[in-house]
Amino acid sequence: MFTTKTNLMNPSLPDDQCPQFTTGTTEALDRAEAACRARGASLTAIRREVLELLYRSPTGVKAYDLLARIKEARPGASPPTVYRALDFLIEQCLVHKIERMNLFVACRQASHQIPSLFLVCPKCSGVTELQEQSVMSALSTSLAEAGHRLESPEVEISALCPKCVGAASAQCADGEGGALG
Ligand SMILES: [Zn+2]
Ligand SMILES: [Zn+2]
Fold this sequence. Notes:
alpha+beta; Arc Repressor Mutant, subunit A; globular; binds zinc ion; WH_DNA-bd_sf; metal-binding
């Protein structure tokens, strides 16, 4: 379906450098399809393609990139078709939308009982979904006590990723600019 093997957010990184997403993509898609069927919903071809694209892009895909990538595979796909597929995947808890980046990421968890915590790197736009149940339970309780309710099940925190933290400290270290020996 998707012949390109490059990582969309980081074209220098081939897909196979993200083993948890690329090995087992078909299995993950089959699992998602079975989960939808169990809920009386259907993972149609276009929905499956959108999900596959997101599984293969561990750092997520911006809405307009996603549209462009789907159009490569399906020239006839209209934006509303793709957005409806995304809405479906979000409803089925298979995909999350990161509002601050207008970015879509595949869910890395088997199932969702509670909201998810997303660390969004402001430098490279990398997104990490944390599975800290205790943190999220405590947050939900505090929110409820304050009389507030989460607007969406994605809680986003701006936080530099390890790579960008490393890059920042390398720059600070006595003017070291590169790794030339
Ligand atoms: Zn999730
Ligand atoms: Zn980063």
